[in-house]
From TrEMBL:
It is found in: Cytoplasm; Nucleus, Nucleolus. Belongs to the RNase PH family. Residues 31-170, 197-260 form the Exoribonuclease phosphorolytic domain. PANTHER family: EXOSOME COMPLEX COMPONENT RRP43 (PTHR11097:SF9), EXOSOME COMPLEX EXONUCLEASE RIBOSOMAL RNA PROCESSING PROTEIN (PTHR11097). InterPro entries: ExoRNase_PH_dom1, ExoRNase_PH_dom2, ExoRNase_PH_dom2_sf, Exosome_comp_Rrp42_subfam, PNPase/RNase_PH_dom_sf, Ribosomal_Su5_D2-typ_SF, Rrp43. One of its GO terms (cellular component) is nucleolus. One of its GO terms (biological process) is U4 snRNA 3'-end processing. It comes from Loxia leucoptera. This is Exosome complex component RRP43. Keywords: Acetylation, Cytoplasm, Exosome, Nucleus, RNA-binding, rRNA processing. GO terms for molecular function: mRNA 3'-UTR AU-rich region binding. Its main location: cytoplasm.
Amino acid sequence: LSICFRTVEPLEYYRRFLKENCRPDGRELGEFRTTTVNIGKCLCSITTADGSALVKLGNTTVICGVKAELAAPAVDSANKGYIVPNVELPSLCAERFRSGPPGEEAQAASQFIADVIENSQMIVKEDLCIANGKLAWVLYCDIICLDYDGNLLDASVFALLAALKNVQLPLVTINEETGLSEVNLKQKNPLIIRKHPVATSFAIFDDTLLIVDPTAEEEDLATGTVTIVTDEEGRLCSVHKPGGSPLTGAKLQDCITRAITRHKEVKKLIDKVIKSITPK
């Protein structure tokens, strides 16, 4: 099919491929783009982070840096630390984004990540407490999109999980005599990750057809999107559906089943990379 037809009638162009159960980029409807992850100090751009990861999902490229700082816990949560996620969509990642304060899409993505952290219990905030009512860890999780070609949420959750798996926190004690905190940088422990949430996103075409891991063009042409988050036990952590075409119970169940399969693939990929960078 010609480039001109794709430009003038993009939806009809897609429909002709979808009828043949494939997509213009050659993928089947249920096929993910090539997924890669780099973890830790191999990312020279953010060596100052306490944990970092770069994830590529096709052309979509997301980097996550985690910075750990010490702070006093909130009065009403004396035994809890904080996790502060922030998603950035700078103008360099796609023409659709502008410089300046975070836009609607970036804010929605940040809220989605916060909900995933909370609902999945991937990190229990009590684990971040050092001294009840006195001292706790704050984890600033900055997720920056370097190249946007759809499916930001899957890439962001993946990058966040990989970066958190890379975090090593120094031993902190409070001196009984002075009441001041003492940080031992020579003794570090990995962050306790309780659950491993993985996001799987689908675009809905013509209200009925589901395609997995949509590109930016596919998202624009779709009549809706849905993101399913599951953990390693196959537990449903979150369903994110910002309007658009409704889904039947059967279709939603189909999405959940596919998400559980995708979780195994992502977990295997992370484990393989972590094993390769762990000192023997």
